[in-house]
Write a structure and sequence with these properties.
Blueprint (H helix, E strand, L loop, with lengths): L1 E4 L6 H4 L1 E4 L9 E10 L2 H8 L16 E9 L11 E4 L14 E5 L3 E3 L6 H6 L1 H12 L8 E4 L5 H12 L3 E6 L5 H7 L3 E4 L4 H8 L4 E6 L2 H11 E9 L11 H6 L3 E4 L9 H14 L7 E6 L3 H9 L6 E5 L1
Parallel strand pairs: 8-9, 8-11, 9-10, 11-12, 12-13, 14-15
Antiparallel strand pairs: 1-2, 3-4, 3-6, 3-15, 4-5, 5-7
Length: 324
């Protein structure tokens, strides 16, 4: 099969290689997917760059955890009904060496979901990490039906999924965006109200929710923590999946006095049952008419280094997808 891989970490143009590898085969409980589209996430970039200094977990890595295509081979203990079905997958390169930047990938059957009718392969390739993270971030502290949820970074990949899932779960959703041009993205995902994330954030949110908010989905933990704490109600909660600084200061006593609960979310280590639950909710949203992600670029596998560079330095809004 054609595949892209790296055997050392560094800049995309210096370490990503395109070549031929033996076709993989599905083992017990696994399926093989003929990949049509492969999604790039920030985590894929960080692994290749060795952002966290953890080194190479495997001598050769085919990048990308998310993708979409058709099941063309199954292992034992897998229903034959999967053969030929259009699916999206997640976790292909989570604690595994070979992801979706290849003609084929093999994953456990519980790491795939049917691609809803009318949904493109490119959309399917974008769902995994952001969608599953968003679902966990919205629901980790409990039921949000009838509650007010503040979603920081509501135009980002996780943020817009969180907006959609929180809205569908019955929450009143307030989203924040960095620029006015992002407001349409957050509104399109289902936000009831959208405010800027600048210096007047607290004032703007209080005008919309004078009694405070119940839960915050947070993309920039260090930058927004003080504002989040000020806005949260007693027994409120924060679910954070990213931060702007590695060692943020925590306003301990204000959090204690409000009995605020804090959840740190790393998608590789979510409870196993959380991921298929998220897949069901994401598919339900798509089937109900949610338009999903804006696709900025479709780039062939042969140009994967350029795809990574565009993901690192976007030239226009939307997701970068590698096509096969």
């Amino acid at each position: 099969m054609k595949a892209a891989w790296y055997e050392k970490q560094g800049p995309a143009s210096q370490v990503l290689t395109l070549g031929e590898m033996p076709d993989p085969h599905a083992g017990p409980g696994e399926v093989r997917i003929r990949i049509a589209a492969s999604g790039i996430n920030p985590g894929d970039i960080k692994k290749r760059q060795d952002t966290f200094g953890s080194g190479m977990a495997y001598p050769r890595v085919i990048p990308h955890s998310d993708g979409a295509g058709h099941v063309d081979e199954i292992g034992s203990n897998v229903s034959p009904e999967w053969i030929g079905r259009a699916v999206w997958c997640f976790g292909a390169q989570s604690c595994r060496p070979f992801g979706t930047a290849a003609e084929f990938t093999v994953v456990p059957v519980d790491q795939i979901a049917p691609l809803p009718e009318g949904v493109s392969m490119e959309q399917g390739a974008c769902l995994g990490i952001p969608g599953i993270t968003a679902r966990r971030a919205v629901h980790v502290a409990g039921d949000v039906n009838g509650r007010t949820v503040l979603i920081q970074g509501a135009a980002g990949s996780v943020g817009m999924c969180a907006v959609q899932l929180a809205r569908r779960a019955g929450a009143r959703v307030i989203g924040t965006v960095r620029s006015p041009s992002d407001e349409a993205i957050a509104k399109g995902a289902g936000a009831h109200s959208v405010v800027g994330s600048g210096s007047k954030l607290v004032e703007a949110v209080k005008a919309l929710a004078p009694n405070g908010v119940d839960h915050v989905v947070e993309v920039a933990f260090g930058a927004n923590l003080e504002a989040d704490v000020e806005l949260l109600n007693l027994d409120g909660s924060i679910a954070t999946y990213a931060t702007n600084t590695e060692k943020p200061a925590i306003p301990f006593w204000p959090m204690v006095f409000k009995n605020i609960r804090l959840f740190f979310l790393g998608s590789d280590d979510f409870p196993r049952e959380a991921k298929p639950r998220a897949a069901l909710d994401l598919n339900a949203a798509l089937s109900a008419g949610w338009s999903g992600f804006q696709i900025a670029e479709r780039i062939p596998l042969a140009e994967i280094a350029r795809a990574h560079e565009l993901s690192e330095h976007p030239t226009r809004p939307g997701r970068i997808v590698v096509t096969l």
